[in-house]
Amino acid sequence: MNNKRLTVLATLCHFIRNCKQVIATDADTSNVCFRLLDYCEVPYKFVVNSHRHNEGINATEVKSLEKLLKKIKKAEKFIVCCDSKKLAGKIYLELGKKGKLYTSDNKEELDINAEEQLIFSPKIVYGLDSNVNRKVFCAFRGHTISPSNMLQQINRERSIVDVTFYFETRRCTPPEFSDLQQCRDFIQQQNTQALKQFEIVCPSLNQMFLGILGEIEYKFDCYKTNVYAHFLDLLGRRGFVVHPLHAKNVKVKKERARGGQGVARREL
What we know:
With 268 residues, this protein is an alpha/beta fold. It has helices spanning 5-18, 31-40, 65-74, 85-94, 147-154, 180-190, 192-201, 203-225, 227-237, 247-257, and strands spanning 58-61, 78-82, 100-102, 117-120, 134-140, 160-167, 241-243. Strands 3-4-2-5-6-1-7 form a seven-stranded parallel β-sheet, sandwiched between helices. Helix 1 crosses helix 2 (31-40) and helix 9 (227-237) packs across helix 10. Mean pLDDT is 88; it is low at 257-268.
């Protein structure tokens, strides 16, 4: 897609400006959506749905992979979300090859409703939904997908009984960017060819493209400073009743993740 960004973005703006009606729904509506609509100069109505699909569902942390495995073995129906293909394979073997393992090695399409016991890598993040009414287990190393994508994995099951999660690491890392402007400056340097195309064809798209990409990259840079704390924060925002191992320490980390003086910064 890198060499088609101009065409894709210009076409999307054309559709928004000229179609009879646009209806867009998503649980992760952000400033990016409004920036695009404002650029297109179309009137719009933003409706906030106060319903939280995960309201009241327990999400409990366990301190070891062994404890997670014990709980999985007792479950009749489950999905296991992993952010690592290697970790997914390890769990599959530890369970005695119980259930269906689905990773990048699988080329066949998956009927997620047909698999009552499913273990998967980031091969599955979006697109597949099931209504099996089962338990969800998570094993995360915190080094590949973002906390928001971890939530996407969990919600592949639309009828969740409860969630049990294990994090291999909870470390904090320094941010790559000190602020949003520094992030935008970096993006401008890294996307000179795309920006030249925008400047030639439609200069006004230039700043809009930079603004949107900057906000996205900056948000993910914030996430990476403390994947664990941001994951807990997102669970709570979605309505889960979160039971972390160390509630006092987590409270401090979450405050930092929301914009305090720690290394983790506010999500956009």
